[in-house]
Amino acid sequence: MNIYLERAGLLMEQRRYAEAEKEVKAYLAGEPTDAFGLALLAEVYLQQERYAEALPPARQAVSNNPEWPWFYYILARALFYNKQMAKAREALQEGQRQTPDDSSFYLLQSIFAIYESKWQEALDAAEAGLALDPEDVNLLNMRTEALVKLNRTGEAAEVIDFALQQDPEDAHSHASKGWVNVHIGNYAQALDNFKEALRLDPNHDFARMGLKEAIKAKNVFYRVILRYFLWISKLSERNQWVFIIGLYVAYRLLLSAAESFPVLQPLVIPLIVAYLIFAFSSWIAKPVSNLFLRLHPLGKYALDEDELKGSNLAGTLLAAAFFFLSDFCLRRPCFCLPDGLLFLYVDTR
Questions:
Q1: Among 11, 242, 251, 268, which is disulfide-ready with 258 (CB 3.0 to 4.6 Å)?
Q2: Which domains does the chain have, with CATH numbers?
Q3: What is the pTM of this model?
């Protein structure tokens, strides 16, 4: 192998991707059409999350050598990260056609299905990959996530425990274990799982997101909203909208019934109020809970810049709302039903 590519490979093993990029480009300066070099450049870009830049060399690698499945694997990932799902699946299917016994393509298929909320497909793909490589930790993690979304948390717990036996130092497996515990309501244990995942990989977003939820779930009020978020995240995208729009239609019908039949108001108004409170809570739960998370000695480090800004805004708006509402109630105590559009918030993570 060329000395540039050898050095690039060693640097990539050490996760020194910027330096590896220089070596690959030095090689391509002399061999600009080499498919392997182009694919390696695309991989370096993907590892640096420079997804748009990864597409051209990935496509060129496949064009220059369409008989090497690894090139389709890289192209499928580049297309996926650029949110071109139809083309990503085409590249994946071609790679699978060329090497049906490669578990990597089943892992990628499971990841795609998870992204598209196709839980059964994700499970089937993970299990097909595990039939080829029963101890693959990444496939075990995908199987765990699919089982959780299919409400098979008991099986998910067994699978992730097996994954941790295979690799006790895998950060993603600890994070997956944490999410299983979140779904079954074991928040204290989940917190320990996420902390261990972040010890192993301080930049693990899946674990950081779980850490925030586990800390906030200590608040009994937020816990109700969290259960809603977790439940609705298990629905397909279509069913999520069916549920939300169906609730809103029911809300409008109740409003109309309360206006048309005053005798029903004692029965209907509590339902309307309950919907409004829950819908409003689903919108403000995240930023408000992040506001309180900032006071936690560990949680404050889990917030990113956007979440910090959102919590600041939530605090300001809550203070202003409290002030104006107090003043309004003192001046003119009354109760009015809003008839504006108020949808439930959806968090699919």
A1: 268
A2: 1-98 (1.25.40.10), 226-331 (no CATH)
A3: 0.74
